[in-house]
Amino acid sequence: MPSNQIHDFNPGVHPFPHGLFWTAAIPPGSVQIDLDAKTASLDLSHTKIDDYGNVVRALTTDSELASATIDVELMWHGGTGPAAIRDSTNHFTGEYVTGSADLKWSAQEPGFEFESDVGHAEFARIGHERNGVFFT
Hints:
The chain has about 140 residues and is mainly beta. It has 1 helix and 9 strands, in the order βββββαββββ.
């Protein structure tokens, strides 16, 4: 852990201490996908999140330092595909389009704001998949 880390924005561990960590439900309508047009987006605005201060505190306590909000904009742009994958042995099937993605992220809490530069990934994949009991 960096000795100068003063912010760690994440959804925490729920239920604490043996639940899922860094996982949160997103509001309905936040994700838009159009495989035919080869586009997808994730848009979260003013979504509540906790600031634990550092990753150790986030993993070892259910007490955050401050309440914050985040804004996330993820735009996915398709390129190749769709490509089908089917693995009957492991009960997994999917159809995917490969492209690129751009991400912008910001956080706000009283006395502090942060906004990222736009990040770009040359490899990003979206698609439909089925596994487990949904395989057949």
